[in-house]
Amino acid sequence: MKLIAKKSLGQNFLIDKNILEKIVNLTSIKNQTIIEIGPGTGNLTNFILKNKPKKFIAIEKDKNLALNLKKNFKDKLEIINEDILKIDEKLLSKDKVIVFGNLPYNISTEILCKWILNLDNKDFWFHSLILMFQKEVADRIISKFNSSKYGRLTILVNWKFNVKKVTDIKPNSFSPRPKIDSTLLFFSPKKDFFKIKNPSNLEKITRIFFNHRRKMIKKPFNYLFNGNSKIIEKLNLDMNLRPQNLDFETYYKLTHEFENLRD
Ligand code: SAH
Asked: At what angle do helices 17-24 and 43-50 cross, to 10 degrees?
């Protein structure tokens, strides 16, 4: 079967052996349950298998690629020919898993946000997530406050995850080559994270604050909290700051106060 890379499914296959080796050495795979999303032609799959996982589930949306994987890997893999966005991740495995994914960039972000929002307190179904992003998005995820890249995605991701940058990856490590640079990120669950009743409140607060990135926080604060001076005092807020000058914790605390006011 001749396999032609489909642009619509973001098919850029990783062919750089050094990078593939680096990815599988990030964590101990032996006797673990692994989920690979978007295995494609099976480049990373091969490297993962060499490290002897206990169980290996692969989720590939492309029917031809899924058939090809079945033919090549037989019973070494459990292949699910589905769209990862439509799968209930918690039903995949009873064991905690390690997730690897070199997915289309937009799907990496969407799936990451979905998984964060679906996580019940402390109920992590994985040990770690190892995911590829376009560099520009990865830079936003790992940025710190006071940076122009700091924003909604940074605050959401850092709420529940410790994030480490593994490496930037140049277009020539893929075939066909993407137009932009990529970055691989490693996510592990935070043991403790700020209690928020409804994550959509965190999304709402950050959306309203970052709506006008260059303006002072006075306006969004007044809009959301009606100028509540007790909260200003409690969180030691300076109304002349810009949204990017508030650290993660402040946004989590603001969300907490927002939820308290509505009880
Ligand atoms: N991981 C492989 C392939 C990367 S290309 C490698 O590094 O070589 C991206 C892969 O994700 C393709 O195989 C594509 O078919 C698959 N894919 C795209 N959207 C998907 C989705 N929504 N769910 C599952 N797989 C998807």
From this structure: 50
- State which of 8, 9, 17, 182 you would mutate to test the pocket of ligand 1, scoring each by most atoms of that ligand within 8 A of its C-beta: 9
Q: Are residues 72 and 180 in the same domain?
A: yes
Query: What share of the chain in percent tops pLDDT 90?
Result: 89
One domain, residues 178 and 217:
no
| Whether residues 158 and 100 fall in one domain | yes
CB of residue 101 inside a 6 A radius of ligand 1: no
* 177 DSSP 8-state letter: P
Any domain includes 42: yes
What pLDDT, in 10s, does the model give residues 209-251? Answer: 999 999 999 999 999 999 999 999 999 999 999 999 999 999 9
Protein residue with least CA distance to atom 7, ligand 1: 14
Atom of ligand 1 lying closest to residue 9 CA: 18
Domain that residue 204 falls in: 199-261
Torsion, Cα of 172, 176, 179, 185 (10° steps): -70
What distance in angstroms lies between residue 59's CA and the mean position of ligand 1's atoms?
8
Cβ atoms within 10 Å, residue 33: 19
